[in-house]
Design goal:
With about 450 residues, the protein is mainly alpha-helical. The chain has 23 helices and 6 strands. The chain folds into 3 domains: about 130 residues, MgtE N-terminal fold; about 110 residues, CBS-domain, CATH 3.10.580; about 180 residues, Tetracycline Repressor, domain 2 (Orthogonal Bundle).
């Protein structure tokens, strides 16, 4: 808010004085996102005054920039009747998402105050599963009959454009509502007035089924650099479109989910990264993972117990346990992050999988050799024992190669088994590689014990 302190103070002053003309002059120069931030910084009284001053359409633009919790606060302050008018002005997909978070009583109160068409459209959108194309799409788009001329299409566009979410793509349908083609605004403008739409439309339309997972839809939009993609039902009838801004929101949410899973702090709920989540709720999401990892980690202690004789004879080996375990976990987590992100973006598929494994094996070999030589020199000089340095270096060399491959192969196997690879989280890989690292370390040390003694 530092950049808007002067603007904020001016808005408060003019709200208090009721100077609507000056307030309009100030407010119209601010982007809707900044308007939303200023709105939430105002006191409840000033928020009410500002909401009374703004039109329903202006409030709809602002509310779209708020979090769900903030939107609910605004609902309580404005009242159901005003809120229902604002909802009608919002894009249908955003309105459906917001209404889906209301309790049943409040939802019915809002919908009952709307017109029959708006209510029917929103109820239909809310029936689709949240994480599908149907749950993500909007019904505000422009369709044209295929027998229209370019001149007729432009006249129709002028009528429909104010209510459409995007006008850059115009979708062409037949008499039964089936998707026949798509036309860019540019092609329509440069076409001669008498040209038929079906002569200039692009017939090979990339569309998505209504039940496609939203992440797959987002990847498709990203892959083809679309501004929007049409959604069709089983009869190939056009039922909605998904715009690029909504697709980017999905990719951001999915990235947040993967980060949460990689950190072992959730099963995919983006709320784990929400600052508004209470400490007790955040802890509940993490405890099961940590409890599981605690049980697995006990094996690390058991490994050390199995090699107790080796440690008793050469106590100095204990000095390097944190190095071996830590490096194993670190390199495994690095490979895991690369693989999970690659799988999420579709980079590692088919023949690329084998290429990835070969590359990561090479990475492990280089990392292992470099760090193995380094720790050998450090251990030999520190403990003045060349044999000890060789053993520590050899153990770390093998450990880093194995740990890198584990961080690569485990998520690939999980993906092949249709399990979300992000659940092979950082802490999980770290714990597994701790066990592998300690086993390799003490096995190598025991094998060379006679030289150490």
């Amino acid at each position: 808010m530092a950049l808007f302190n002067g603007t904020f103070d001016a808005i408060v002053l003019n709200l208090s004085k009721g100077n609507k003309e000056k307030l309009r002059e100030i407010f119209d120069e601010i982007h809707p996102y900044d308007q939303a931030q200023i709105l939430m910084e105002l006191s409840a009284e000033h928020r009410r005054l500002l909401a009374d001053f703004l039109t329903d359409e202006e409030m709809a633009e602002i509310i779209q920039e708020l979090s769900i919790e903030q939107q609910k606060l605004i609902i309580d302050e404005l009242g159901i009747e005003r809120y229902s008018k604002i909802i009608v002005e919002m894009p249908s997909d955003d309105a459906a998402d917001l209404l889906g978070d209301l309790d049943e009583d409040r939802l019915n109160q809002v919908l009952d105050l709307m017109g029959d068409k708006e209510e029917a459209d929103l109820r239909e959108l809310m029936e689709y599963p949240e994480n599908t194309a149907g749950g993500l799409m909007t019904t505000e788009y422009i369709v044209l009959p295929e027998d229209f001329t370019a001149d007729e299409a432009i006249k129709k566009l002028r009528q429909l454009a104010p209510d459409a979410e995007t006008v850059y793509y115009l979708y062409v349908i037949d008499s039964e509502g089936r998707l026949r083609g798509v036309l860019s605004l540019r092609d329509l403008i440069i076409a001669s007035p008498e040209t038929k739409i079906h002569d200039i439309m692009y017939e090979r339309v990339v569309s998505v089924p209504i039940d496609m997972d939203q992440e797959e839809v987002a990847k498709l939009i990203d892959k083809y650099d679309f501004l929007a993609v049409p959604v069709v039902d089983k009869q190939q009838k056009l039922v909605g479109i998904i715009t690029v801004d909504d697709a980017m929101d999905v990719l951001a949410e999915e990235a947040s989910e993967d980060i949460a899973k990689l950190g072992g702090i959730g099963g995919g709920d983006p709320g784990v990264l929400d600052i508004n989540v209470k400490a007790i709720d955040a802890a509940k999401r993490r405890i099961p993972w940590l409890a599981l990892l605690l049980c697995i980690g006990i094996f690390s202690g058991n490994i050390i117990a199995q090699f107790e004789d080796t440690l008793d004879k050469v106590v100095v080996l204990a000095f390097f346990i944190p190095v071996i375990a830590g490096m194993a976990g670190n390199t495994g987590t690095q490979s895991l992050a690369v693989v999970v992100r690659g799988l999420a973006t579709g980079q590692f598929a088919g023949s690329n999988t084998l290429k990835l494994i070969k590359r990561e094996a090479g990475v492990g070999l280089i990392i292992g050799t470099t760090n193995g030589i380094l720790i050998s020199l450090i251990a030999a000089l520190w403990q003045r024992n060349i044999i000890l340095g060789f053993i520590i270096g050899l153990a770390l060399w093998i450990t880093l190669i194995v740990a890198t491959l584990a961080g690569t192969i485990i998520p690939l196997i999980m993906a092949r088994l249709k399990i979300d690879p992000a659940v092979a989280s950082g802490p999980f890989i770290t714990t597994i590689n701790d066990i592998l690292g300690l086993t390799i370390y003490f096995t190598v040390a025991t094998a060379f014990m006679k030289y150490l003694l």
